[in-house]
């Protein structure tokens, strides 16, 4: 499908015409047993730029989850369990190749569904493909080990897949998040049942359709539907042997409780309130941009957003001035345009949540920039909010402690190193953190003292499949990405072989 650059007309006209193309070209719905499953109650998937339905898609029921899990076990036991790492790798590479041929189509779906600027959507689709290729590569290099435990014993370890695993992903980076889970799980030899977020299922369903004929039928299943029904059914399912979840801390802890009933392991990737510490010697040219990207990328709807800027008091004025300038330089517009750097929030409910936080912020702290919705009448139907900056914030304030999940920066100041670390770590979360300094020793000391699973120095991102990604404390546990995620989708087995002299 042709995509991307707007061809003229109003934003509404352009989007309606893209919706028509999408409806004409695709059938979205559950993907179970290697085929599209029509039927089921239809739900609108909305475009947050003009608040109209892109398409209506059938949702899965709990019965469909049962069917998907049962079919996945059949596929695992009869067609997938015996596949060699070489075979799994080849199939994952083949899938990545097909997805690469459809980058623009997947990018367009992601852009329309999330309201994500097309440049960011494209980057995430490419990131999803890179993730699948990473796991296609590394699964062949995996080995067991021999444990030297004595002359009369041959002791070795192997890895095995769980069988059928359940995965639940959010709406803020849909296909990328799905790839973080499907890549390692399939590479490890599991069959998957994945639920995309109700708000943004399109790219993931399409990517699964593009796997047709590559994996044995039933190995990869997508069950769109509501969290309370389909998500809960996956979390509670007796035959789902492991659950991986990305989303809010509240729902994540419920998923963990459900899995605990049958002692199934879980991986949780939850929220954050990530600090970025700007030391007095920081190169403000690059650090201001890093902190701005860190909170305004994806309209702030990203779990590792740098949502607390902790700035040394000696440079607070200059940092703030430059940061406001950076905030005001974002181009709010039609996400289909290559020029747009900030789109709307992904849904009405997210818009309501974020604007409520902004109102709370106005009563708690000093509004330095933004705080409203854009004037452009072309954007008035979308869930846009301006890049917003608050100064004089403390960790005690609502906007300084709760995850807003929108383009809202909170600037705080500190006097010395100890205070910076104390403020940074004074949160129930521990996903990401950032450091702005030119001093190497300070980088290492601070990275060591920060209580978070990710540390970025003088930049925001990238997120590469090569390294583990995940948080501390209430930001979750277990890891997405890296070799660690592959290992999380496997069980380790120790085999003790007695080598006593045989008595003949
Ligand atoms: P959420 O409710 O936790 O949704 C995440 C996923 O879980 C979605 O697929 C959702 O399905 C599903 N879900 C909802 N209730 C469920 C249940 N009872 N059992 C199993 N699955 C369930 O998150 P949200 O409401 O979309 O966002 C709220 C907040 O979560 C955000 O403001 C942010 O703080 C945090 N969040 C974090 C991340 C992250 O990347 N770590 C991502 C998204 C959100 P439905 O789509 O059908 O609801
Ligand atoms: Mg949507």
Descriptive overview:
The protein has 504 residues and is of the alpha/beta class. It folds into 2 domains: 48-270 and 478-490, Aldehyde Dehydrogenase, Chain A, domain 1, CATH 3.40.605; 275-465, Aldehyde Dehydrogenase, Chain A, domain 2 (3-Layer(aba) Sandwich), CATH 3.40.309. Helices cover 40% and strands 20% of the residues. The strands form 6 sheets. It has a 7-stranded mixed β-sheet, sandwiched between helices. A 6-stranded mixed β-sheet has the order 9-8-7-10-11-21, with helices on both faces. A 3-stranded antiparallel β-sheet has the order 5-6-22. α4 (103-114) runs antiparallel to α7 and α6 (174-187) crosses α16. The structure holds NADP nicotinamide-adenine-dinucleotide phosphate (NAP) and magnesium ion (MG). NADP nicotinamide-adenine-dinucleotide phosphate (NAP) binds at residues 168-172, 195, 197-199, 226-228, 231-232, 235, 246-248, 251, 254-255, 269-271, 303, 403, 405.
- Which band does the percent of strand residues land in? 15-25%
Bound molecules: NADP nicotinamide-adenine-dinucleotide phosphate, magnesium ion
Task: Order the strands across the largest sheet as they lie in space.
Answer: 14-15-16-13-12-18-19
Could you tell me the radius of gyration in angstroms? Answer: 24 Å
Query: What's the structural domain tally?
Result: 2
Number of alpha- plus pi-helical segments: 16
- Regions with little confidence, pLDDT below 50 for 5+ residues: 1-5
CATH superfamily of the largest domain: Aldehyde Dehydrogenase, Chain A, domain 1
Summarize the amount of helix as a percent range.
Answer: 25-40%
Indicate the CATH topology of the largest domain.
Answer: Aldehyde Dehydrogenase, Chain A, domain 1
* CATH architecture level-2 label of the largest domain: 3-Layer(aba) Sandwich
**CATH top level label of the largest domain:** Alpha Beta
SS-derived structural category: alpha/beta
| Through-space gap between termini | 73 Å
Q: What's the overall average pLDDT, rounded?
A: 97
Oligomer: single chain
Largest sheet: 7 strands, mixed
- The number of distinct β-strands equals 22
- The coarse silhouette is globular
